[in-house]
Amino acid sequence: MRFLMIEDNADLARSVCARLALEGHAADHASSLSEADDCLAGTRYDMILLDITLPDGDGRSFLSRHRTAQADTPVIVLTARSAVSDRVDTLDLGADDYLTKPFDFAELEARCRAVLRRRGGTVSNLTEYADLIFDPLGGCVSVDGEARDLRNRELRLLEVLLSAPGRILSKDQLCDRLFSYSEPVSDNAIEVYIARLRRKLEGSKARIETVRGLGYRLVGG
Amino acid sequence: MTQATRQWLRGKATRPASLRRRLVLQLIALSAVLALVLYVAVRLGAERASEATLDGILGAATTAIAEELRSVDGGPELELSPGTFSMLAAMGEERIFHRLNLGGSAVTGYDDLPMPPDTPTALTAVFYDAPYRDAELRLAAVARSLMIDNRPTPVLVVVGQTREGQRAIAQQLANRAAALGLAVFLIAVPLSLLAAGTLLRPIGRLAEAVGRRGGHDLRPVRHPAPTELQPLVQQLNGFIARLRSTLTQTETFIAEAAHHIRTPLATLRSEAEIALRQSEDEPTRVRLRSMIRATEESARSASQLLDHATVLFRAEQPAQDRVDLGTMTAALVDRFLPTADLKDMQIVLHPPTDALVTTGDAVLIEAALRNLIDNALKYSPADSNVSVSLARDGNFARLSVCDRGRGLGGEGLADLSQRFRRGPNVGEVVGSGLGLTIVSETIAAMQGRFELTDRENGGSCATLWFPLHE
Amino acid sequence: MRNTLVSATRVTVRWMAVLVAITLPLSPATAFEIEDERRFGLTSAANEMAVLSTTDIALFAPLAEAFLSQTPNTALRYVQATSRQVHAAIDEERAAFDLVISSAMDLQMKLANDGFSRSLPDDLVASLPDWARWRDRLVAVAQEPVVLLLSGAALPEGTQRPRSRRDLIALLRDNAALFDGRIGTYDPQASGAGFLFLTQDARMSDSIWRLAEVMGRLNTRLYCCSGDMIAGLRSGDLLMAYNVLGSYAAANLTQADGVHIILPEDFTITLQRTALIPSTSDHPELGVALLNFLLSDTGRRIQSEATGQPPFDAQTFRNQPHLRPIRLDPGLLAHLDAMTRRRFLAEWSAALDQP
Description:
Chain A is α/β, with parallel strands linked by helices.
């Protein structure tokens, strides 16, 4: 996905863009509304991340302009404020969702997916591997055309494996990607989810290989 | 001093002064003084007036007798008039005594009648009191000169009368004055109460007007107040203005603080995550993970502290909004769905059959519900469900958030609601401990109820009762 | 205080009585003269009260007896004296009497004024009209007119009885020879009552001085007492007596005497016989009892029977306006003043002393 991050704090903006890049997304950074207008004029974005307080005008005014212009790029507002009125207002003004800083990246992705799903009409990039077709946005997987019902974490696990096919991913790495940092994770949690995923993908040419002592990798494609 | 006396005195010292009581007591005291003064004035006045009148008559009679004294060949000649004596005796049946001195010695009348202390001068009567026989007399003495045998001889005429009649009348007048004074005093008592009531009513009305305002009403007091209360009202308005400005500043501060704390934290977390992804070194990864946890804790604490600050000053004078609990709950549940989904959890909502509306501060209620759902999601294991149900319970709306988490670990609500207090079974879960404090303070401000119970087969239920706005 | 005064006085009187008894043969002026004395009641009576009065014993007797009949175990010693002696008895001698009755209102008033009388009970005082009492010290027990007595023989054929003092003066002038030396009146020097009547006469109008002149020219004889004047009229010695107590006249004159009792219509002085309980009294309660009896209906009835006079009251005075009651107040003291009295008597003597 192509993100536009409108944020006046340079450090945060840079960091978030780098983070997005790690996941394979593209991200542009505008540090003011006028810069944002320039960016939007030239490029088409899948998602706008907007900081509600900007130096040259409240983010709200951007929202109202954006809505009246009937641009179809969804906006997720990033806010540091507490007041519920701020949150409610932003939704009323046309934001699709909001997140409080600092935010969990997994949550950001989940909300982006939800927003895009709601908007509909956007063709997401499908990932193919062997006989697997994975729609990250829709959150569905099909094995040889047959849809398989996967739960969220199972989906996320598959996504991680699909992002580096054939590469060994350690349990740790998988943990980091699957669970939040503050969640208590049991030792065999990954095994449990790997087992579940294997069950769900039964019959597929793609399979998850255990490399003892090192981790897991997706093979078969 | 006895124990009882000491306690009584202490009570008196600490009991607040009553304006009404003081006013009434002062008015009564004043009327008592006035009644007394009236009595004394009338008494004295009556006595003086009657004495002056009678003295005038006595003096005139004595002077007349002195003037009628004639000198003839045989010596001095006196003819006392029965009418004069009758008149002198008339009021109160007084006894009359007289004496005539010629050249210093008594010539006729009662020769032992008391003499005046000072010799009177030419035909002006001198008045004095003296006892005589068994009575108290009022005497008048008049002196003149009479030519006897071609020689001027000093003559002194003394006439005395009892004053019992006068005393009796003066006593009667005094009694009447006393009765009048008492009547005035007795009338003064209810009038004082009435006056005090009327006078102090504006104060009551002002207090009422100020009291009627809602908690959030920080407009200046414009109720018409009497001149004496104007300074107080002005000070009150000044205070209100300062409070309003302080509150505004606090709100602004909270918002600014939020912004300035959270933005750097967001940067910190983001950078740490990137570093974690890019690092191969296990110890470094451990450290980075702990850094991320620290930022999460910091962020959560900051959120809750800011939330708590909001709760505190909003709870002091909560807004009275109409809050549709069903709508708010549904919106919140909707909001948390993606968060729950991350842990493969589901939030099951049991909505109410009809609209349940309560009166309270929307910001506070939303913060409380958010905290409860957030708590439930945080302390529950992956794959479990959180159920949120809202229903009518008598005059209340009952909202329950139940999870399959670790339960309360044996601690009660009172303990868990203490600030920064976390239960014994939180383990590694990140939390600041303010969540339940916020909930209990919010519900208390609304005169609702909050209950935290363990659940059968594990987990806990947090239940809030909101008074329904009918 | 009063009790000590009374007992002190009593002691003094006892000693004075002894002194008087001793010195009586030497200086009779220290004792007061009595005209008559009688003891009523049983000798065995435990209580004896003493009454001093100017009233004739004969007139008082029925009252005394009636009183004693309803007061058991009591005897009454009645002393009759002239009004001046009565006054002196109390004022100078401080004699112990339980009731003092006198026709001399002025002398009684002086006793009361000077503090020689006791307080009378409230109920007794309250029962009397204002003009019949002074304070709670002096009360009137009877009223009687001071009358003119004219012998029938003094009226020439066809002459009307004189109705006023003017008429009297005219009658006297017109019949000077007839009346010469045959007119009697009180000697104001000797008789207290007589002095009182004259001063009241003079208070009422000036006609007394013209009458006095006429009487002086006609060699009026002066008497100490009513009784003598009445006796003179009865015997024919006197043809007219001026200023006589009506009760005496009524009591002592009969139809047969042919003496007219005239109440002058210009004004008739009405005397009040007054009573007081002296501070020297030994049995004041008996005095009060007797006083109550005198003022009761029985007492009044007996009095009027004895005196032949109807009881006087407010109604009587309204119906007969020529009856002028002498006012019972200290105005009576004016003429008792030595100089004033001297002057008055001098004037009287001068009026009477006509060539």
